[in-house]
Design goal:
This protein has 174 residues and is mainly alpha-helical. The chain has helices at residues 2-17, 66-79, 93-96, 116-125, 129-140, 143-156; strands at 42-46, 49-54, 88-90, 113-115. It has a two-stranded antiparallel sheet. A two-stranded antiparallel ribbon has the order 3-4. The radius of gyration is 16 Å and the shape is globular. The chain starts with a helix and ends in an 18-residue tail after the last helix.
């Protein structure tokens, strides 16, 4: 289809330019991504500069792209020496509480121990909601404290229309 051809051409161009086209992007342009058909908005970012914006001020639910901000904050904590990729983390009941049964998961259970690196893979490849919550609690002590950090970092990045309510992007009607 035309959409598939356009998407594949954009992905190929992005790889040549060093930009990664990863999927949908919300009003918070913290990730690289693009989609033309059926999207309320799209953005493509490369080398720290916005290459393309379309309807970027439209409000929308960002869903799992929220996990990109979670990964950014985890990566920054690693850079500051607060975490290590090989650091073992044990899943807590609070990290797993309230997650829908039909959501994306890596089936991590309370008491299971994984490394930061494994949790990042679970979060970014499987889109595991519980992995995002486990990492959030590890970085900030609680999910609420982590969400405050997410919103602060979004403001620092100039994402003025962005407001996070959880580390995994699950819809919150508020």
């Amino acid at each position: 289809t035309v959409r598939s051809a356009r998407w594949n051409a954009l992905r190929a161009a992005s790889f040549r330019s060093g930009t990664v086209v990863s999927g949908w992007v919300g009003s918070a342009v913290v990730s690289t991504g693009i989609r033309f058909d059926g999207a309320k908005y799209c953005a493509m970012v490369g080398f720290g500069a916005v290459v393309l914006l379309q309807a970027e001020r439209n409000s929308s639910i960002t869903a799992s792209i929220t996990k990109v901000m979670t990964a950014l904050l985890v990566s920054e904590a690693i850079d500051r020496g607060e975490l290590r990729l090989d650091q073992q983390i044990t899943a807590t009941a609070t990290a797993l509480r309230g997650l829908p049964e039909d959501g994306s998961t890596a089936d991590i259970v309370e008491g299971e121990t994984l490394t930061v690196e494994q949790l990042l893979y679970c979060m970014m490849l499987v889109s595991a909601n519980e992995a995002a919550c486990i990492l959030a609690e590890t970085v900030a002590g609680s999910q609420d404290a982590f969400v405050a950090l997410m919103n602060q970092r979004a403001q620092e990045l100039g994402c003025t229309g962005t407001h996070f309510v959880n580390p995994n992007g699950l819809h919150d009607p508020n």
